[in-house]
Amino acid sequence: VQLQASGGGLVQVGGSLRLSCVVSGRTFSAYDAGWFRQAPGKERELVAIMPWRGDRPVYSDSVRGRFTISRYKAKDTVYLQMNSLKPEDTAVYYCAAKANSANLEQIRNYDYWGQGTLVTVSS
């Protein structure tokens, strides 16, 4: 299974970016997918998760209302629309997927990870 993330870059405060993650080579029929991020010197943290079953997405408090996660199942692609970006959003963003039924919000439950894409928000 491979996850390919793209769409990162340099943006000014208040700007927007859209990240994409393409999942390929999967052998399972369903999976939860999400975005996580890691800023320099900090632990990796949850940003947003889209469950396979169509339950409501999960967002961290820090991005709720500014970021939107979506997925296009037919193309195995997950998106993260990021609006009203802040300097504290600067991080490497990773997409991840899991085919197990373990807790959605636990990073350790995600088996498959993309390579990361850097988002830098300048003030």
List the helices and strands and how they pair.
Layout: E1 2-6, E2 9-12, E3 17-24, E4 32-38, E5 45-50, E6 58-59, E7 67-72, E8 77-82, E9 91-98, E10 112-113, E11 117-122
Strand content: over 45%
Sum up the overall morphology in one term: globular
Low-confidence stretches: none
- Give the helix level as a range of percent: under 10%
Number of strands: 11
Number of helices: 0
- N-to-C terminal Cα separation, in Å? 37 Å
Mean of residue pLDDT values = 95
Could you give a short account of the major beta sheet? 7 strands, mixed
Structural class: mainly beta
Radius of gyration: 14 Å
What does this entry look like structurally?
- The protein is mostly beta strands.
- The chain is 0% helix and 49% strand.
- It has strands at residues 2-6, 9-12, 17-24, 32-38, 45-50, 58-59, 67-72, 77-82, 91-98, 112-113, 117-122.
- The strands form 2 sheets. Strands 2, 4, 5, 6, 9, 10 and 11 form a 7-stranded mixed sheet that branches. The protein has a 4-stranded antiparallel sheet with strand order 1-3-8-7, with no helix packed on it.
- The termini are far apart.
Question: What are the defining features of this structure?
Answer:
123 residues; four-stranded antiparallel β-sheet; seven-stranded mixed β-sheet; mainly beta; 11 strands; globular
Briefly summarize what is shown.
Helix content is 0%, strand content 49%.
